[in-house]
Design goal:
It is a single chain. The protein contains twelve helices and 13 strands. The protein is an alpha/beta fold. The longest helix has 15 residues. The protein has one domain: Ribonuclease Z/Hydroxyacylglutathione hydrolase-like (Metallo-beta-lactamase, Chain A, 4-Layer Sandwich), CATH 3.60.15.10.
């Protein structure tokens, strides 16, 4: 996992059990090395492209609502290069959804196939500038050849999930070998998916994007405040998805659930920010 910048906002907005103070919400991205497909990313976090595309209004309102920080060394392409991985070696990027804090770095990986939800692509492709910003969507962050490189998750084979991931039952087999399974997590954004796989320790990992913003929210089944639901256009499916994650954690705490903005998981998997 990599921390690729962060935004700053009131923690209570993200979880009704959290305190009323400002905190940094990390933007986490994952690197998976598949034995056949090579290096695969789960989201990309922020990048310098984000600041380019939010210089002017209405897009600047996004940056004002959630002030963003990205140090040069935090850019995902730079972090991969520091580990000896050329950005051109990234074979695929799995986009959990199309909010700006998840897609800003796509432009840095020009040779990667882009796995995403068709319904999410339709939402960002057809949104106007003002309506898009209100929903966290900034079309200019995507490369011009996005449509050519896109592969839609809904077109893939539906498979049953193992019982240790209940109450989640089905997902989409991304590479046809049951190694990486995309799981629909509705409520936060159009076409949001999480990703299930087993790591090299044979532990089940579930990257859940923004279906929850913290493990505290998962453990306590504590959804965001209502004002955050309205600001983010959460649908009525959000509480059910969070409740399913809570039930999964209660039934099988061995599954490593990783929300994309969780400081607890950042500390465990990456280390605290300097």
């Amino acid at each position: 996992m990599f921390k690729v910048g962060h935004c700053r906002q009131i923690e209570r907005l993200s979880c009704r059990a959290a305190p009323w103070h400002f905190c940094n919400f990390p933007a986490l991205a994952g690197l998976i090395t598949h034995p056949e497909e090579g290096h695969v990313l789960f989201d990309t976090g922020y990048s310098p492209k984000f600041f380019e595309e939010t210089r002017n209004f209405p897009e600047r309102a996004y940056r004002m609502a959630t002030p963003v920080s990205l140090q040069p060394h935090e850019n995902l392409a730079a972090q991969l290069s520091a580990r000896g991985i050329d950005p051109d070696e990234i074979r695929a990027i799995i986009l959990s959804h199309f909010h700006a804090d998840h897609i800003s770095g796509v432009v840095d990986f020009p040779h990667a196939a882009l796995l995403c939800a068709n319904v999410g692509w339709d939402a960002i492709r057809t949104a106007g500038r003002f309506s898009g910003v209100r929903r966290g969507l900034i079309r200019g962050l995507l490369p011009d050849d996005f449509a050519r490189r896109a592969r839609f998750i809904e077109d893939l084979k539906i498979v049953s999930l193992p019982l240790d991931l209940a109450p989640f039952e089905t997902g989409y087999d991304l590479f046809g070998d049951n190694s990486l399974t995309a799981v629909f997590l509705p409520g936060h954004a159009d076409g949001q998916f999480g990703l299930c796989f087993s790591n090299t320790d044979n532990q089940k990992v579930f990257l859940v994007a923004d279906a929850a913003w913290s493990m505290q929210a998962v453990r306590d089944n504590a959804p965001p405040m209502k004002i955050a639901d309205r600001m983010l256009h959460h649908t009525t499916a959000y509480p059910e998805t969070l409740r399913n994650l809570h039930n999964l954690h209660q039934r099988n705490s061995e599954v490593l659930i990783v929300p994309s903005h969780c400081r607890e998981r950042q500390t465990e998997l990456i280390g605290a920010s300097p």
